[in-house]
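Dig into this one:

. . .
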Amino acid sequence: MNRRDALRALLATLAVSPAGLPHPAFGQARVPRIALLTGGSGASLEESMKALREGMTALGYEEGRNFTFDPRFGDYDRERTGKLTAEVIGSKPDILITQGAVLIAVAPLTKTIPVIAMFSGDMVDIGIIKSLSRPGANVTGIQYFAIDLVGKRIELLKEIVPTLKRIAVIADPGHPVLHLERDAAMAAATKLGMSVAYFPVKNPKEELDAALAAARAAGAEALVMFPDAVTFQGRERIAAFALQHKLPTVSGWGSFAVAGHLVTYGPNLRSSWVRLAGHVDRVLKGADPGTLPVELPTIIELIVNRKTANALGVKIPQSVLLRADRVIE
Protein backbone atom coordinates (compact mmCIF):
# COMPACT_ATOMS: atom_id res chain seq x y z
CA MET A 1 0.00 0.00 0.00
CA ASN A 2 1.46 3.38 -1.01
CA ARG A 3 1.20 6.54 1.06
CA ARG A 4 -1.86 7.85 -0.80
CA ASP A 5 -3.79 4.58 -0.35
CA ALA A 6 -2.89 4.49 3.36
CA LEU A 7 -4.26 8.01 3.82
CA ARG A 8 -7.49 7.07 2.07
CA ALA A 9 -7.89 4.03 4.31
CA LEU A 10 -7.32 6.13 7.42
CA LEU A 11 -9.93 8.69 6.37
CA ALA A 12 -12.43 5.93 5.65
CA THR A 13 -11.90 4.54 9.13
CA LEU A 14 -12.33 7.92 10.79
CA ALA A 15 -15.49 8.57 8.81
CA VAL A 16 -17.39 5.81 10.62
CA SER A 17 -19.28 6.89 13.73
CA PRO A 18 -19.48 4.83 16.94
CA ALA A 19 -22.94 3.68 15.82
CA GLY A 20 -21.50 2.26 12.60
CA LEU A 21 -22.91 4.99 10.38
CA PRO A 22 -20.90 7.28 8.06
CA HIS A 23 -19.87 10.52 9.73
CA PRO A 24 -21.52 13.46 7.92
CA ALA A 25 -18.49 15.69 8.47
CA PHE A 26 -16.68 13.78 5.70
CA GLY A 27 -19.57 14.23 3.26
CA GLN A 28 -19.92 10.50 2.69
CA ALA A 29 -23.59 10.14 3.67
CA ARG A 30 -26.67 12.18 4.41
CA VAL A 31 -27.58 12.19 8.11
CA PRO A 32 -30.60 9.89 8.60
CA ARG A 33 -33.79 11.67 9.65
CA ILE A 34 -36.04 9.96 12.18
CA ALA A 35 -39.56 11.37 12.27
CA LEU A 36 -42.00 10.75 15.10
CA LEU A 37 -45.74 11.11 14.69
CA THR A 38 -48.30 11.07 17.49
CA GLY A 39 -51.80 12.31 18.05
CA GLY A 40 -50.81 13.36 21.56
CA SER A 41 -49.04 16.44 22.83
CA GLY A 42 -45.41 17.32 23.29
CA ALA A 43 -45.93 17.70 27.04
CA SER A 44 -47.47 14.24 27.37
CA LEU A 45 -44.57 12.64 25.46
CA GLU A 46 -41.76 14.63 27.08
CA GLU A 47 -40.50 11.79 29.29
CA SER A 48 -40.88 9.27 26.47
CA MET A 49 -38.76 11.43 24.16
CA LYS A 50 -36.09 11.68 26.85
CA ALA A 51 -36.09 7.90 27.21
CA LEU A 52 -35.80 7.35 23.46
CA ARG A 53 -32.89 9.78 23.24
CA GLU A 54 -31.20 8.02 26.18
CA GLY A 55 -31.53 4.73 24.34
CA MET A 56 -30.01 6.21 21.20
CA THR A 57 -27.12 7.72 23.18
CA ALA A 58 -26.42 4.38 24.86
CA LEU A 59 -26.08 2.82 21.40
CA GLY A 60 -23.49 5.38 20.33
CA TYR A 61 -25.71 7.88 18.51
CA GLU A 62 -25.46 11.64 18.84
CA GLU A 63 -28.39 13.75 17.73
CA GLY A 64 -27.39 16.20 15.02
CA ARG A 65 -24.25 14.23 14.19
CA ASN A 66 -25.36 10.82 12.99
CA PHE A 67 -29.14 11.23 13.13
CA THR A 68 -31.73 13.99 13.31
CA PHE A 69 -35.01 13.77 15.18
CA ASP A 70 -38.20 15.34 13.84
CA PRO A 71 -41.16 14.90 16.23
CA ARG A 72 -44.68 15.99 15.20
CA PHE A 73 -47.55 16.27 17.69
CA GLY A 74 -51.25 16.29 16.85
CA ASP A 75 -52.18 17.78 20.24
CA TYR A 76 -55.29 15.56 20.46
CA ASP A 77 -56.77 17.24 17.39
CA ARG A 78 -57.83 14.73 14.74
CA GLU A 79 -57.79 17.21 11.86
CA ARG A 80 -54.33 18.44 12.79
CA THR A 81 -53.09 14.87 13.20
CA GLY A 82 -54.44 13.95 9.78
CA LYS A 83 -52.60 16.84 8.13
CA LEU A 84 -49.39 15.98 9.95
CA THR A 85 -49.68 12.37 8.82
CA ALA A 86 -49.79 13.40 5.17
CA GLU A 87 -46.93 15.87 5.64
CA VAL A 88 -44.65 13.43 7.43
CA ILE A 89 -45.17 10.61 4.94
CA GLY A 90 -44.71 13.05 2.06
CA SER A 91 -41.38 14.17 3.52
CA LYS A 92 -40.08 10.56 3.28
CA PRO A 93 -38.10 10.23 6.52
CA ASP A 94 -35.57 7.42 6.81
CA ILE A 95 -37.57 6.00 9.72
CA LEU A 96 -41.03 6.90 11.00
CA ILE A 97 -41.76 6.21 14.66
CA THR A 98 -45.48 6.21 15.44
CA GLN A 99 -47.05 6.46 18.85
CA GLY A 100 -50.59 5.36 19.50
CA ALA A 101 -53.45 4.96 17.06
CA VAL A 102 -51.82 7.04 14.28
CA LEU A 103 -50.24 3.74 13.23
CA ILE A 104 -53.64 2.70 11.86
CA ALA A 105 -53.70 5.77 9.59
CA VAL A 106 -50.04 5.47 8.59
CA ALA A 107 -49.92 1.75 7.73
CA PRO A 108 -51.96 1.87 4.49
CA LEU A 109 -50.26 5.06 3.28
CA THR A 110 -46.71 3.77 2.95
CA LYS A 111 -45.20 0.37 2.26
CA THR A 112 -41.66 1.68 1.81
CA ILE A 113 -40.86 3.92 4.81
CA PRO A 114 -39.73 1.76 7.76
CA VAL A 115 -42.33 2.24 10.51
CA ILE A 116 -41.43 1.54 14.13
CA ALA A 117 -44.51 1.62 16.34
CA MET A 118 -45.20 2.13 20.00
CA PHE A 119 -48.71 0.73 20.12
CA SER A 120 -51.23 0.00 22.85
CA GLY A 121 -53.21 -2.46 20.82
CA ASP A 122 -52.98 -5.77 19.00
CA MET A 123 -51.26 -5.23 15.64
CA VAL A 124 -52.12 -8.73 14.50
CA ASP A 125 -55.79 -8.42 15.48
CA ILE A 126 -56.26 -5.24 13.43
CA GLY A 127 -54.36 -6.66 10.45
CA ILE A 128 -51.32 -4.38 10.37
CA ILE A 129 -48.78 -7.20 10.82
CA LYS A 130 -48.88 -10.92 10.08
CA SER A 131 -47.39 -12.08 13.37
CA LEU A 132 -45.37 -10.75 16.28
CA SER A 133 -42.39 -12.93 15.42
CA ARG A 134 -42.33 -11.96 11.73
CA PRO A 135 -44.37 -8.82 11.11
CA GLY A 136 -43.95 -8.68 7.33
CA ALA A 137 -44.23 -5.50 5.26
CA ASN A 138 -42.56 -2.40 6.75
CA VAL A 139 -43.80 -2.28 10.36
CA THR A 140 -42.23 -3.43 13.61
CA GLY A 141 -41.91 -1.99 17.12
CA ILE A 142 -43.16 -2.54 20.65
CA GLN A 143 -46.71 -3.52 21.50
CA TYR A 144 -47.46 -2.75 25.13
CA PHE A 145 -50.96 -4.20 25.18
CA ALA A 146 -51.24 -7.49 27.04
CA ILE A 147 -54.72 -8.94 27.51
CA ASP A 148 -53.91 -10.85 30.70
CA LEU A 149 -53.20 -7.56 32.50
CA VAL A 150 -56.85 -6.47 32.17
CA GLY A 151 -58.11 -9.17 34.52
CA LYS A 152 -55.23 -8.71 36.93
CA ARG A 153 -56.14 -5.03 37.41
CA ILE A 154 -59.68 -5.96 38.37
CA GLU A 155 -58.35 -8.63 40.71
CA LEU A 156 -56.20 -5.93 42.36
CA LEU A 157 -59.24 -3.74 42.97
CA LYS A 158 -61.08 -6.66 44.57
CA GLU A 159 -58.07 -7.51 46.71
CA ILE A 160 -57.86 -3.91 47.95
CA VAL A 161 -61.62 -3.52 48.44
CA PRO A 162 -63.09 -7.03 48.98
CA THR A 163 -66.65 -5.69 49.33
CA LEU A 164 -66.82 -4.40 45.74
CA LYS A 165 -69.89 -5.56 43.83
CA ARG A 166 -70.19 -3.15 40.90
CA ILE A 167 -67.50 -1.46 38.83
CA ALA A 168 -67.59 0.95 35.90
CA VAL A 169 -65.28 0.89 32.90
CA ILE A 170 -64.38 4.22 31.27
CA ALA A 171 -62.86 3.83 27.80
CA ASP A 172 -62.62 5.18 24.27
CA PRO A 173 -64.98 3.20 22.00
CA GLY A 174 -62.56 3.79 19.13
CA HIS A 175 -59.62 2.15 20.87
CA PRO A 176 -58.35 -0.67 18.62
CA VAL A 177 -58.55 -3.41 21.28
CA LEU A 178 -61.68 -2.29 23.12
CA HIS A 179 -63.53 -5.52 22.32
CA LEU A 180 -60.70 -7.63 23.72
CA GLU A 181 -60.41 -5.53 26.88
CA ARG A 182 -64.17 -5.49 27.47
CA ASP A 183 -64.43 -9.27 27.17
CA ALA A 184 -61.49 -9.74 29.55
CA ALA A 185 -62.92 -7.26 32.07
CA MET A 186 -66.34 -8.91 31.99
CA ALA A 187 -64.83 -12.36 32.48
CA ALA A 188 -62.65 -11.25 35.40
CA ALA A 189 -65.44 -9.34 37.13
CA THR A 190 -67.92 -12.19 36.75
CA LYS A 191 -65.42 -14.65 38.20
CA LEU A 192 -65.03 -12.36 41.22
CA GLY A 193 -68.78 -11.90 41.69
CA MET A 194 -68.94 -8.34 40.37
CA SER A 195 -70.99 -6.67 37.66
CA VAL A 196 -69.53 -4.31 35.07
CA ALA A 197 -71.05 -1.29 33.32
CA TYR A 198 -69.29 0.32 30.37
CA PHE A 199 -69.30 4.08 29.76
CA PRO A 200 -67.79 5.14 26.41
CA VAL A 201 -66.01 8.48 26.01
CA LYS A 202 -64.93 9.62 22.55
CA ASN A 203 -64.08 13.20 23.43
CA PRO A 204 -62.83 13.84 26.98
CA LYS A 205 -63.54 17.57 26.76
CA GLU A 206 -67.21 17.07 25.92
CA GLU A 207 -68.18 13.62 27.24
CA LEU A 208 -66.01 12.67 30.21
CA ASP A 209 -67.89 14.51 32.95
CA ALA A 210 -71.23 13.08 31.79
CA ALA A 211 -69.80 9.55 31.67
CA LEU A 212 -68.40 9.82 35.18
CA ALA A 213 -71.70 11.16 36.51
CA ALA A 214 -73.57 8.35 34.77
CA ALA A 215 -71.23 5.76 36.28
CA ARG A 216 -71.84 7.08 39.77
CA ALA A 217 -75.61 7.27 39.18
CA ALA A 218 -75.51 3.62 38.07
CA GLY A 219 -74.09 2.64 41.44
CA ALA A 220 -70.47 2.09 40.50
CA GLU A 221 -68.28 1.48 43.55
CA ALA A 222 -64.98 1.73 41.66
CA LEU A 223 -63.68 2.90 38.28
CA VAL A 224 -61.57 0.98 35.78
CA MET A 225 -59.84 3.05 33.12
CA PHE A 226 -58.68 1.16 30.06
CA PRO A 227 -55.33 2.81 29.23
CA ASP A 228 -56.01 4.74 26.03
CA ALA A 229 -55.55 8.26 24.69
CA VAL A 230 -58.92 9.46 26.00
CA THR A 231 -58.52 8.29 29.59
CA PHE A 232 -54.88 9.40 29.59
CA GLN A 233 -55.89 12.89 28.52
CA GLY A 234 -58.58 13.00 31.22
CA ARG A 235 -56.66 11.18 33.95
CA GLU A 236 -56.42 14.15 36.33
CA ARG A 237 -60.13 14.99 36.03
CA ILE A 238 -61.04 11.35 36.61
CA ALA A 239 -58.81 11.21 39.69
CA ALA A 240 -60.40 14.37 41.11
CA PHE A 241 -63.91 12.98 40.53
CA ALA A 242 -62.97 9.67 42.11
CA LEU A 243 -61.57 11.39 45.21
CA GLN A 244 -64.63 13.58 45.55
CA HIS A 245 -66.97 10.60 45.43
CA LYS A 246 -64.71 8.10 47.26
CA LEU A 247 -64.28 5.76 44.30
CA PRO A 248 -61.15 3.55 44.07
CA THR A 249 -59.59 3.56 40.58
CA VAL A 250 -57.27 1.33 38.61
CA SER A 251 -55.56 1.68 35.24
CA GLY A 252 -52.59 0.37 33.30
CA TRP A 253 -49.98 3.13 33.07
CA GLY A 254 -47.93 4.62 35.90
CA SER A 255 -48.85 8.16 34.86
CA PHE A 256 -52.39 7.49 36.13
CA ALA A 257 -51.09 6.76 39.64
CA VAL A 258 -48.91 9.87 39.51
CA ALA A 259 -52.04 11.86 38.60
CA GLY A 260 -53.81 10.62 41.74
CA HIS A 261 -55.36 7.26 40.85
CA LEU A 262 -55.29 4.58 43.52
CA VAL A 263 -53.39 1.84 41.74
CA THR A 264 -51.93 0.98 38.33
CA TYR A 265 -50.62 -2.27 36.94
CA GLY A 266 -49.01 -2.45 33.53
CA PRO A 267 -45.92 -1.97 31.40
CA ASN A 268 -43.16 0.43 32.35
CA LEU A 269 -43.47 2.70 29.31
CA ARG A 270 -40.20 4.49 29.94
CA SER A 271 -38.19 1.29 29.63
CA SER A 272 -40.10 0.46 26.44
CA TRP A 273 -39.09 3.76 24.87
CA VAL A 274 -35.46 3.11 25.77
CA ARG A 275 -35.74 -0.33 24.15
CA LEU A 276 -37.32 1.18 21.05
CA ALA A 277 -33.93 2.70 20.22
CA GLY A 278 -32.70 -0.83 19.52
CA HIS A 279 -35.24 -1.17 16.71
CA VAL A 280 -34.14 2.19 15.29
CA ASP A 281 -30.50 1.11 15.45
CA ARG A 282 -31.11 -2.16 13.61
CA VAL A 283 -33.17 -0.52 10.85
CA LEU A 284 -30.58 2.23 10.37
CA LYS A 285 -27.98 -0.48 9.93
CA GLY A 286 -29.99 -2.13 7.18
CA ALA A 287 -32.35 -4.57 8.89
CA ASP A 288 -35.72 -5.19 7.24
CA PRO A 289 -38.45 -4.11 9.70
CA GLY A 290 -40.67 -6.88 8.38
CA THR A 291 -38.27 -9.45 9.83
CA LEU A 292 -37.74 -7.74 13.21
CA PRO A 293 -40.05 -9.27 15.84
CA VAL A 294 -42.54 -6.97 17.55
CA GLU A 295 -41.64 -6.95 21.23
CA LEU A 296 -44.03 -7.22 24.17
CA PRO A 297 -43.58 -5.53 27.58
CA THR A 298 -40.68 -6.93 29.58
CA ILE A 299 -41.10 -4.82 32.74
CA ILE A 300 -44.53 -4.84 34.38
CA GLU A 301 -44.92 -2.53 37.37
CA LEU A 302 -47.41 -2.18 40.19
CA ILE A 303 -47.75 1.36 41.54
CA VAL A 304 -49.84 2.23 44.59
CA ASN A 305 -50.78 5.77 45.55
CA ARG A 306 -51.05 5.57 49.34
CA LYS A 307 -51.82 9.29 49.55
CA THR A 308 -54.94 8.64 47.48
CA ALA A 309 -55.77 5.56 49.56
CA ASN A 310 -55.69 7.65 52.74
CA ALA A 311 -57.95 10.26 51.16
CA LEU A 312 -60.39 7.55 50.13
CA GLY A 313 -60.28 5.88 53.51
CA VAL A 314 -58.99 2.69 51.89
CA LYS A 315 -56.44 0.50 53.65
CA ILE A 316 -54.01 -1.08 51.18
CA PRO A 317 -53.40 -4.73 52.17
CA GLN A 318 -49.85 -5.62 53.08
CA SER A 319 -49.94 -8.28 50.38
CA VAL A 320 -50.34 -5.53 47.76
CA LEU A 321 -47.76 -3.20 49.29
CA LEU A 322 -45.16 -5.96 49.35
CA ARG A 323 -45.65 -6.56 45.62
CA ALA A 324 -45.62 -2.87 44.70
CA ASP A 325 -42.71 -1.58 42.63
CA ARG A 326 -43.46 1.93 43.80
CA VAL A 327 -45.57 3.45 46.56
CA ILE A 328 -46.51 7.12 46.23
CA GLU A 329 -46.72 8.65 49.70
